[in-house]
Design goal:
CATH architecture of the largest domain: 3-Layer(aba) Sandwich
Number of strands: 4
Structural class: alpha/beta
Order of helices and strands: HHEHHHEHEHEH
CATH superfamily of the largest domain: NAD(P)-binding Rossmann-like Domain
Helix content: 25-40%
Strand order of the largest sheet: 1-2-3-4
Strand content: 5-15%
Oligomer: single chain
Number of helices: 8
CATH topology of the largest domain: Rossmann fold
Shape: globular
Radius of gyration: 19 Å
């Protein structure tokens, strides 16, 4: 949570009550976005101008890039109370007492899409000034190596829920950064395929877009774990 200076704004009992009421005594696949609106609205926070950071397929590098804990360089959804509270948490309801299934959630309904889609929409509505988006230009599954687009217009959250909420009256510019994992062949870059699609969709909303492949800041972060590889041997000044 980035509003550490006003902890009195939230009542933990109220948060738990609204959270419980949203999904308890309901089947895990029968919870809707509307069920979570009261909770998300209660935890609403303003995002400081020029600090908003969106991401897709690039969780680790995006949170290293935001460096919220130490420098507050940028703010992701997971740095707000709505994201921090349930980040990496799995939960689901049941029609039986006590209303919560503490042992097993149906896999296809355990990703909590109604919650995260609502939280993403509300976060997008708060963005002002320059907004950054980090995409994965080498997006593939770690186990089966299946390849995925850098931007998915109709899947997950950036395309279906965040993009429609971006407001040209509030946002001056969007900067897309396409990050490429070291030692993997780039699959997409600026001006190509779905990165180009995202760029065009944003521009069609009247918002200027800049796109960069592997900015110095991102490359240095990637090289921390493998500094001796050739691509990390930066020329001395």
């Amino acid at each position: 949570m980035f509003k550490r200076d006003i902890p009195e704004k939230w009542d933990c009992g109220q948060i738990w009550s609204k959270f419980f009421e949203a999904f308890a005594y309901k089947g895990p696949c029968y919870v809707t976005q509307k069920d979570y609106e009261g909770l998300i609205n209660y935890m609403a926070e303003e995002v400081p101008r020029d600090k908003g950071l969106l991401w897709s397929g690039s969780r680790e590098i995006s949170h290293k890039f935001s460096d919220f804990r130490y420098t507050n360089r940028f703010i992701t959804l997971e740095d707000t109370l709505a994201g921090f509270l349930v980040n990496k948490l799995s939960w689901c309801g049941t029609e039986k007492d006590p209303g919560i299934d503490f042992t097993q959630c149906t896999w296809e309904c355990s990703i909590q899409a109604p919650y995260w889609s609502t939280a993403n929409k509300k976060f997008a509505q708060k963005l002002r000034g320059t907004v950054h988006i980090i995409l994965n230009g080498t997006r593939q599954h770690l186990d089966d190596k299946n390849v995925y687009p850098s931007f998915m217009q109709n899947r997950y959250y950036l395309g279906p829920y965040v993009l429609p909420e971006l407001n040209s009256k509030n946002i001056d510019k969007i900067v897309i950064i396409v990050a490429h994992t070291l030692h993997l062949k780039p699959l997409e870059s600026c001006g190509e395929k779905t990165v180009l699609l995202l760029t065009d969709l944003i521009r069609n909303k009247g918002i200027p877009v800049d796109c960069h492949d592997d900015t110095d800041a991102v490359r240095h972060l990637l090289c921390v774990d493998d500094p001796s590889t050739d691509v990390c041997k930066f020329q001395a000044i």
